[in-house]
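To the wet lab folks,

You asked to see what we're planning to order before we commit. Fair enough. Below is the target structure as tokens, and below that is the sequence we designed to fit it. If anything looks off to you, flag it before the synthesis order goes out.
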């Protein structure tokens, strides 16, 4: 399906339907994906265990979406292309120094893990928005790919809100102003050169998959430190 050949209203309708369908597996636990304490007046009274359950559920789901998007793009566009060698060590989040092994992560202070998770989430705000925008106008991207990208963009915002609430609960106090890595691939995603454009898309899917895994892993480690490790999803 070529999005450029489809009327805008039809694309919007198709996208909406796909988002509804993609969310069906979550309906039984829909409350786990609702905004955390955003609309509450006064202190947030959601138990810490529930906050962690919600956050790890969303993080795991985002990782699954990221893997599906990467696999779909790789299968459709990577035949005969050596994309992997072009994107190794080129993620815009490479300046965020993360533990090299699981053991190093487990030994890291919880303040460090919180900082890493929040830095990674903030760093994907602009690229996810641009990814959805460019996929919408792509001549080759499937509506399914667009739907997944739109969903992970929305759920990343929900996850960020949840992690900030958890951090505030565990480490109350004034937040330090953080700087986050700048994403500078916007022009490559819309380049006229087909190889440049597809390499940029491959890179964003590859890096999103990698970082989503880190976010999910670090959140699970934090959950085990402060609440029960068992899943309640």
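Sequence we intend to order:
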């Amino acid at each position: 399906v070529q999005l450029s050949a489809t009327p805008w209203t039809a694309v919007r309708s198709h996208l909406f339907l796909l988002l509804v369908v993609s969310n069906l597996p979550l309906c039984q636990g829909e409350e786990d994906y609702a905004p955390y304490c955003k609309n509450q007046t006064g202190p947030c009274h959601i138990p810490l265990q529930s906050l962690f359950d919600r956050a790890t559920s969303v993080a795991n789901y985002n990782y699954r979406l990221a893997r599906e998007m990467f696999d779909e793009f790789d299968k459709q566009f990577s035949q005969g292309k050596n994309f992997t060698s072009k994107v190794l060590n080129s993620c815009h989040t490479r300046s965020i120094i993360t533990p090299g092994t699981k053991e190093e992560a487990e030994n890291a202070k919880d303040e460090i893990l919180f900082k890493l998770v929040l830095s990674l989430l903030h760093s994907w705000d602009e690229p996810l928005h641009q990814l959805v925008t460019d996929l919408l106008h792509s001549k080759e991207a499937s509506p399914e790919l667009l739907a997944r990208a739109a969903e992970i963009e929305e759920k990343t915002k929900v996850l960020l809100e949840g992690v900030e609430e958890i951090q505030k609960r565990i480490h109350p106090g004034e937040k330090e102003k953080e700087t986050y890595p700048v994403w500078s691939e916007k022009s490559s995603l819309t380049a006229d050169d087909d190889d440049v454009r597809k390499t940029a898309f491959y890179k964003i899917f590859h890096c999103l998959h990698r970082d989503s895994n880190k976010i999910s892993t670090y959140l699970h480690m934090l959950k085990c430190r402060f609440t029960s490790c068992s899943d309640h999803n």
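Structural context that might help your review: The radius of gyration is 18 Å. Residues 130 and 186 are 7 Å apart (CA to CA).

Thanks,
Computational group
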